[in-house]
Amino acid sequence: MIRNKRAQVMTEYTMVYFWAIFIMIVFIGGLSYFGFFNLENNKANFCQFDANFYCSQYQIKFYAGDASAVGTHPNTFNMTFFLQNNMDANIVINKTQLFDENDAEIVCQTFNLTCPLESNIYYIQANPSNTPGAINSLKTSPWSPTRVCKVEYIYCNKILLKGSKELIDIQLNFSSEISNITHISNGQIYTKIQ
Question: CA torsion, points 110, 168, 180, 142, in degrees to nearest 10?
């Protein structure tokens, strides 16, 4: 009789712990399934450059396109951000390059720099993005100190997953308007693909 009571107590004791552990495993599994432990989703978005520029209002948009249509660019992305000239001289972007997190170059069909922001006429344009840029002859106002300009990369050749986060490295080769000495400024954008 005493043996049966001990067996029953032991069984009940084990079952209580079994159910408690089972509920904890289901709870942790649910949190994991819904991305609670995915650190990439919780990492903050950022746009940063060295001291020469200040970056703001950035976005990367996936462009699915139509592979069968002429003149479309399927499975590319467009990237837009605002960049402020923090130097004490008017500058010109000579060349720009994009790289992914594996240091593979990303080439875009077009690079546009529009100054000032409200303008509909680009200041500098390059086709494709990794070639030297040309200053628009119709444009009269330079990229002066503290002026914020709109930077656009259009139809870039990397396939991105909509909703995921991506790190893009940006390299700007620039010079002052009165000098041929070139400088390189590096930046990064890490954000969710829209």
Answer: 60
Q: Specify the residue for token string 């628009």.
A: 136
Q: How far, in Å, CA of 169 to CA of 189, rounded?
A: 7
Per residue in 16-73, pLDDT (tens digit) is 888 999 999 999 998 888 877 777 667 788 999 998 899 999 999 988 765 554 456 6
Residue 178's Cβ-count burial label (10 Å; 0-12, 13-18, 19+) is exposed
Distance separating alpha carbons of residues 28 and 139, to the nearest angstrom = 59
